[in-house]
Amino acid sequence: MPLTYTGVDKGRATSLAAKAMLGLVYLTRTGPTYGINGPGLATNEYDKAVSLFNDVINSGKFSIVPTYAAIFSWTNEGNADIVFDVQAIGGNTGDLGLGARFPTDFVDANYATSQGIKFAGGAETDAPQSPSADLRNSFEVGDARKTFSIINSYPPAGAPQFVKFWDKTQAGVDRFNWPLNFPALRYTDVLTMKAEAILRGGFGANGTQADVDAIVNQVRTRAGLTPRINVTLDQLLTERRHEFMEEGIRWFDLVRNGTVITTMNAWRAIDDTAGKINPVVENYIIYPLPVAQVTGIQAGYEQNPGY
User: Fold this and answer.
1) Cβ contacts of 50 within 8 Å, gap of 6 or more
2) 157 or 208: which carries more pLDDT confidence?
3) Does the domain at residues 7-76+184-272 carry the CATH identifier 2.70.70.10?
4) Which of 7, 35, 41, 119 has its CA 20 to 30 A from that of 167?
């Protein structure tokens, strides 16, 4: 796999994207087992993860983008923070099936209507995923990531909304057809995963506390926050929670750091006022198999425990 692609091949996974993803695999395998046959194997492969992350960092192909908003700009796709993104084009009837739907999934239909957008095909029934009070209250004052990504309400009395990927001027012919790439793996992710590996693996050959602080403070400075010293693992995970909201990362951060059960159940007790979420147990760390694969004529698979 090459280091870069050009022309019609731009957007394919490069060798650096593969290295970054393999580093994440090592970091995940190194996590706790929870006593189940799951992703965490307690393999102590922090050194392998750091080595791969360093290959990506030292390649010179990526860098810290000056502002948080610039990472997600519709006119700045493929910027220096993007290691790999899921490509999408859309907007027109002829592009149906090639666009993205995630900008719609993060807002409710009433918000879209308030913005003057009426999508073909009706309103989303599974959306919205409104930012929880716990998340909104967890930010420091002046964090640019919050002000860019979340609005507290909309007229006349709408709930808080995620607007990180929202630009009403880019709406396609229906709610499934936004011409925006999804950032599957970012340079900031690689940097902070390296910091995580250093903290979890213990200081030494993998890196020092100063290395961790330097990484975290690059991210905090871009967010408009003051630097920290002696950054802890909990503080790093909070930075990642804020940095990567809406990017599908938080659950996996909690799993590989051994805190998913306690954190999710504490969050559920406060924010799941509708009582829609089951208490999280060890077996839920592994997803269920589709029913068709368990009961189908040519199946023969056993369902994972707990489902």
Assistant:
1) 23, 194, 197, 198, 201, 206, 207
2) 208
3) no
4) 7
